[in-house]
Each structure stands twice: as C-alpha cells, then as structure tokens.
Structure of HAD family hydrolase:
Amino acid sequence: MQRLALFDLDNTLVDLDQAFAIWAIEFSDRYQLGCEAVERIIALGQGRPHREMFFAEVRERFALAESVDELWRNYRQRMPHLVYCSPEVKDGLSRLRVSGWKVAIVTNGMADNQMGKIQQTGLSEIVDALALSGIEGTRKPGRMLFEIAAKRCGMSLTAEGGGGWMIGDSPIADVAGGRAAGLRTIWIDRGVWPDHDQEADHVVIDVLQAIEILAGS
Ligand SMILES: [Mg+2]
C-alpha cells in the first residue's frame, strides 16, 4: 500500500472543542450574556455542527441584533486564532514525511475558516497537500475530496497498489468515507459517539497514537 496519510483537521490535528470553548467565553463577554450562557452556547454548538444553524439559534435565543451572516463571519475570523496544533503533532507529521510518507489534510468547512486555521497553526508549511470542501465544492464522506488530496500528493486511490490511510474523529465523514474510498482508517475516539458503530482498522484516543501506528506500519 502506498504511503499516503490523509488527516482530518478539526478535533484531529487541532482541538476544535477547546478552541470553541474559549470562543464561547469571549462571545458571552462581548454580548454580556452572563456566565451561564457559556455552557448553553457550548451545548448548542455540540448539537449543531453546521454553524449557520447554530448561529440562527444563538441569535434567536439571546435576541442579538447582528445577522446570522455577521455572527458567523466574525466567528470564522476569530477561530483561526484560537485553535492550536501541538509541536508534538507537527513533529510527528514531519517525521512521517521524512520517512517517505505523503501527508495531506482533508477537511469539511468554509474556505476562510479552515484555511485560516491551517495557516495560523503552521500546518500549511508541514503537509504536502490540502483538500478543503469549501474550496473544492465536494464534502466528506463523498469519495471525491479524498481523491483530490491523493492526486495533489502525486498518488491515486484507484491505481494498482493505491489506497492509503484516513485518520479522523468522525465515524461517518472520516471512517465510513475513508473506507468507501478504499482507504484504511484510524478513528480518534473522543468519547462523543458512544453508541456509534464504526469499522476502523484502528481506534486511538489521539492523533499522536495514530501517527505512531503509521510510522510502525
Ligand atoms: Mg473532525
């Protein structure tokens, strides 16, 4: 199997939940919503991964004057500055590349938000390629975004000896999507999908463990 490692971004290479919690505190301060609002905003965010729906609900619940578009745009401008990628993770990706792996990020989300996060964390300078749904117009778990990433690494998922690995926290977008695209998969189990069936080749608790598995394969 070719040495191709495709990584999800949010809650895989970066801790989005942690960044979201910081953002919720800032947001609550800015609109003077009070301490108890932070937990409610975080709970709303967890149940609504699509941010347009999330901001529609937040706007209504807290009777905010700004439009959903404005609230969401402000969020996308701020989030790239709140996410963090640990030096250990960046080192791990660099070591994979030194040992002959091609490494890419395959992520769903708006182009400005996702690209901002990839640039601010320095990940853009480490990986071989990017495939962002907001730029390409196609999303995981669909096969096409994985194909685009592989091609940008000079590889193909369909060629003889093709394949590779997909590593991510979503049992649907990353694991089921990766499997359907002919990839082996490593699922990062963050404990938020307790009853979800998934058929990953490996289950780990963080991306460093996933990188170790790849390095030893
Ligand atoms: Mg994710």
